[in-house]
Amino acid sequence: MFSDKKEKRISTEPGSAQNRINEGTKLKGDVSSTGFFRIDGSVDGNVKTPSKVVLGKTGVIIGTLICENADIEGKFEGTLHVSGTLTLRASAVIEGDVTVGKLSVEPGATLNASCVMQSGNSKNRAASTQTNLDTAKDTPFNRQSQIKKVADS
């Protein structure tokens, strides 16, 4: 009647477990976890977590970082996707492509990247942007429409 087998459930929600890559550690490859990351060493590859990532002063990531929130003091090169808040401390050096929900930059941080700010759902945002553009064409405050009307007169 009762089975001794227990089903293992795989959770995709952020965990409370902390993962740490210490100073002097070099990791090459892709890293994925449901928990928080603290990186003081070097990662050459992709890091993915639905939680927070802290890149310490001695930390280096070369590759792709996908996370909810990030606090960066070290060096990052590559593609950075932060759905929540990206905090750049004074010692941070960022190079590459950045997509964030919110951005906080301390004086002294270096950001040599293309940066895109986005809200929750990019599909809805693109649709609303197109709708706003369509309605803007019809308003009397649209400069292009006014120039065209004057030119046609």
From TrEMBL:
Top-level taxon: Bacteria
Disordered: annotated span: 1-25, 119-153
Compositionally skewed regions (Basic and acidic residues) per UniProt: 1-11
Pfam families: Bactofilin (PF04519)
Biased composition (Polar residues): 13-22, 119-134
InterPro entries documented for this protein: BacA/B
Family assignment from sequence similarity: Belongs to the bactofilin family.
Protein name (record): Polymer-forming cytoskeletal protein
Organism: Aequorivita vitellina
Lineage: Bacteria, Pseudomonadati, Bacteroidota, Flavobacteriia, Flavobacteriales
